[in-house]
Write a structure and sequence with these properties.
globular; Elongation Factor Tu (Ef-tu), domain 3; alpha/beta; Rossmann fold; 3 domains; Ubiquitin-like (UB roll); 19% helix
Length: 315
């Protein structure tokens, strides 16, 4: 766990603030790669994940963008209302679950709204590498577009195309994605509906699944009506736990002292992915791909359940 100071707080757009964080002890911060995020222990007592958006080569600061979400459990609201310059926060070291593909020779970056944050770091890194890339940023109006000044002033501004919905300049995903190249990879981040639309267009155009990368900031609503209890067996100890319909596997195991790393508790970060040895999971995460889901050899205990009466886990 790292202790950091909020050195700057800037309003980047309606409902979006950026925070510049530096080490409380003045030492260099751990390095990170484009697409990485940190876990922030917010003043509301909940942990939230925020992507790093500054150039990855920087060690003197981390910069995050926070969207104030009225539907959240209070984490983003606390960041906006209670974190001021000089305040201390506890954060994790950076972790990357949305990394640039090292084998790609061309990169297509697409962001919607607050989804620009990891995409910004990607553009910084790709520019530093001299790589071929294009960035498309979609927002509802100039007041809702975050980091527009930074995009305009960036040395790689010529790679950026802005899509302002208020001016009728909406992204035509089907046209943009209609000709996938063998060595080109796609990265998309933003609201769930936005990501789904881009992924659908990519799928329809024949983009290989391995060339399509996405990161969700929040989980899609899940219909829990009809959830049934099931059993979880821990292969290493033989212990069996009953999972009630209204509780998650993680909650039950955590209460019993079984340690599973978790972060988002929504199935979007991948921290808790656990190997399944037997049984059929009911996948409810947005971290793994459809191909990974089809294998049924791992699942996210923070949100996913079981289609079979019992799951045997490699725990």
């Amino acid at each position: 766990m790292l202790s950091v100071l909020a050195r700057r707080k800037v309003s980047e757009a309606d409902g979006i603030c950026s925070f510049e964080l530096c080490a409380a002890d003045g030492e260099p911060l751990p390095g990170f790669s484009a697409g990485a995020h940190i876990d922030v222990h917010t003043p509301a007592g909940v942990v939230r994940q925020y992507s790093l958006c500054n150039p990855p080569g920087e060690r003197h600061r981390y910069v995050i963008g926070v969207l104030r979400d009225a539907q959240s459990r209070g984490g983003s609201q606390a960041m906006h209302e209670h974190v001021q310059v000089g305040h201390t926060l506890r954060i994790s070291e950076p972790r990357n679950l949305f990394a640039l593909a090292t084998e790609a020779r061309s990169h297509l970056l697409i962001a919607g709204g607050i989804g620009i944050t990891p995409i910004l770091a990607m553009a910084h890194e790709l520019s530093a590498q001299g790589a071929d890339f294009a960035l498309h940023y979609c927002f509802r109006s100039p007041a809702r577009g975050a980091f527009l000044a930074a995009l305009a002033d960036a040395p790689w501004a010529q790679h950026v195309t802005l899509h302002d919905d208020s001016r009728g300049d909406r992204l035509d995903a089907a046209a943009l994605l209609n000709a996938p190249a063998p060595d080109r990879h796609l990265y998309v981040c933003g609201p769930a509906g936005f990501i789904d639309a881009v992924l659908s267009a990519a799928h329809a155009a024949g983009w290989p699944e391995a060339h399509v990368h996405r990161e969700f900031f929040s989980a899609a609503p899940t219909d829990r009506h009809g959830d049934q209890p099931f059993e979880v067996e821990l292969a290493r100890s033989g212990r069996v736990f009953q999972i009630p319909s209204q509780r998650s596997v993680f909650e039950v195991l955590d209460e019993a002292g079984v340690e599973i790393e978790t972060s988002c508790e929504q199935g979007i970060c991948g921290a808790c992915v656990t190997r399944v040895l037997s049984g059929t999971p009911d996948h409810r995460d947005q971290f793994m791909s459809e191909t990974e889901h089809a294998k049924n050899d791992q699942f996210t205990p923070c949100c996913s359940r079981a289609k079979s009466p019992r799951l045997v886990l490699d725990l």
